[in-house]
Design goal:
Elements (H helix, E strand, L loop, with lengths): L1 H53 L1 E3 L2 H7 L2 E4 L1 E5 L2 E10 L4 E5 L4 E6 L6 E2 L4 E6 L1 H42 L4 H7 L8 H28 L4 H58 L16 E5 L4 E6 L6 E2 L4 E6 L3 E9 L13 E5 L8 E8 L9 E9 L10 E7 L4 E6 L5 E3 L2 E7 L4 E6 L1 E5 L4 E5 L6 E5 L1 H13 L1
Helix pairs in contact: 3-6, 5-6
């Protein structure tokens, strides 16, 4: 019996040992869970107690003075949604020119380089061209021809005037000696001999008939002789009148022809000058005294004040007609060019003269605006868009052609919304927030949700109420302070 009890005890010892070990393990697990929950409750309590201070930035007096904090109340504002579209800065079409060489030649001098400022009429380059020499020589030739025909016309006009005066004197039956004396120094051309000879014969015939008339009454002279003298007088008078008529006609014709020659010479000279001026690009008065080595000199001058944007050739290079020498532009005003996509057309209400805003990523610290010049009519088949062109004042020379920009295109109508300025909103970890002034040196981080936005205002859909004082300047300093406190 005792042996049986002893055997049962020996068999039960391992079981009791196992049960004891299980009890100890359960106790230890229970203690750990209890301790963990206590620590969690303690940490939760401390977090709840300091929850507000985590999002609160307190600035010392020194930092507050240097931060230059500015605040503004949240209010209802008129907000219009703006859609940012990509664009580029371009030259103003009316203030940019590609200076091309009008002739074949060799560059003997290049005086300007990209970036140089020039005034109207400044010399940019010099080309030696035989075409220019021929054009100048043609001008000189046409000018000489004009001088010749002008002298001819002056002479014919003087002859016509003198003939008219001569006929007046002859009609007064002046003696041939008096006429020759009066017109000795006057130009009459070939008409002098013809007219005066015919007039002299006519006078002689009239004198002879006058002398024979008294003798005819006494019978001393035959009637036949009288008739012959009368016939001679009639023939002389007829010849005189014919010569006078022919002289008048010939004189007028010659004068008209000379006048026509002068007009034709003037036209040819103008054409030669215009051709030369077209090649030169400026007006030049060619002088007969111009040296032969300068006849072929072509000066490329600036047609207006501006800056040299590009230069394509250097000194001694050969150029041919239509080669681009310089790009000259006045960049005091530039174009902002953007494309309006088809989806935006129904909502776009842009009109010429309207002011629009745009951003330049390369100059992020500056706000830009431009006046709409026109909105294109033709739809591009490549991009299915229409061009928007606006003029921007670039008198400070900050913008350069080719710069990438983002143009704020107004869409829809203006609406009254609770709004803050875009500068007030901070982005971090895909969240948006602002800083609300709690006191003079304390600022609370407040998460927000936004709606429609423009360049001036951003709609607040959640997180703020009207009247709250929001920081609009010094925001990034507050963000830095907030992040530093978070790291600590």
């Amino acid at each position: 019996m005792a042996m049986n009890i002893q055997k049962l005890i020996i068999k039960a010892v391992p079981v009791f040992f196992l049960l004891g070990m299980m009890a100890v393990g359960w106790f230890m697990v229970h203690e750990l869970e209890t301790t963990g929950k206590s620590h969690a409750m303690e940490e939760g309590g401390s977090a709840e107690q300091s929850g507000e201070s985590v999002n609160l930035v307190t600035l010392s007096d020194g930092k507050l003075r240097s931060a230059n904090i500015k605040i503004e109340p949240v209010q209802l504002r008129m907000v219009q949604h703006h859609h940012l579209v990509p664009g580029r800065i371009r030259y103003d079409d009316e203030k940019q020119i590609n200076l091309k060489t009008p002739v074949n030649g060799i560059l003997i001098d290049v005086l300007k380089k990209p970036g140089d400022r020039v005034q109207q009429g400044d010399l940019l380059a010099v080309i030696n061209s035989s075409e220019i020499g021929q054009a100048r020589a043609d001008v000189l030739k046409r000018r000489s021809e004009l001088k010749i025909v002008t002298r001819t016309y002056d002479r014919e006009k003087k002859i016509a005037d003198n003939l008219e005066h001569l006929f007046v004197e002859l009609n007064n039956n002046k003696s041939i000696s008096d006429v020759e004396k009066s017109f000795a120094d006057m130009t009459l051309g070939m008409y002098r001999q013809q007219i005066l000879a015919a007039y002299s014969k006519d006078i002689l015939a009239k004198t002879l008939i006058k002398k024979i008339q008294p003798l005819a009454n006494t019978g001393s002279v035959s009637g036949r002789l009288i008739r012959e003298r009368e016939s001679d007088q009639q023939i002389a008078s007829a010849a005189y009148r014919a010569i006078c008529d022919q002289a008048k006609f010939s004189c007028v014709q010659t004068k008209m022809q000379a006048e026509s020659d002068v007009a034709d010479a003037n036209r040819r000279l103008r054409i030669a000058r215009q051709y030369l001026e077209t090649m030169l690009g400026y007006r030049e008065e060619v002088s007969e005294s111009i040296p032969a080595n300068l006849l072929s000199r072509l000066e490329i001058r600036a047609p207006f004040a501006g800056s040299i944007e590009t230069r394509s050739f250097a000194r001694t290079e050969r150029v041919v007609r239509s080669d681009s020498l310089f790009i000259l532009a006045d960049t005091s005003t530039l174009y902002v060019a953007a494309d309006l996509r088809e989806n935006d057309w129904p909502a776009v209400g842009i009109k010429p003269g309207q002011i629009i805003n745009f951003q330049v990523p390369a100059i992020s610290d500056h706000a830009f605006s431009a006046k709409v010049h026109y909105v294109g009519r033709e739809v591009s088949t490549a991009s299915n868009s229409i061009p928007l062109i606006a003029v921007v004042d670039n008198s400070d020379r900050k913008l350069r052609p080719g710069m990438f920009v983002r143009v704020a295109v107004p869409l829809g109508k203006r609406q009254e919304k609770l709004a803050v300025r875009p500068a007030s909103i901070v982005q971090h970890n895909n969240e948006q927030f602002v800083f609300v002034a709690i006191s003079d040196n304390q600022f609370q981080q407040v998460k927000i949700s936004t709606g429609i936005a423009s360049q001036e205002w951003v709609e607040i859909t959640n997180g703020l109420q009207a009247g709250q004082q929001v920081v609009i300047e010094g925001v990034f300093l507050l963000k830095s302070e907030l992040l530093l406190e978070g790291e600590e």
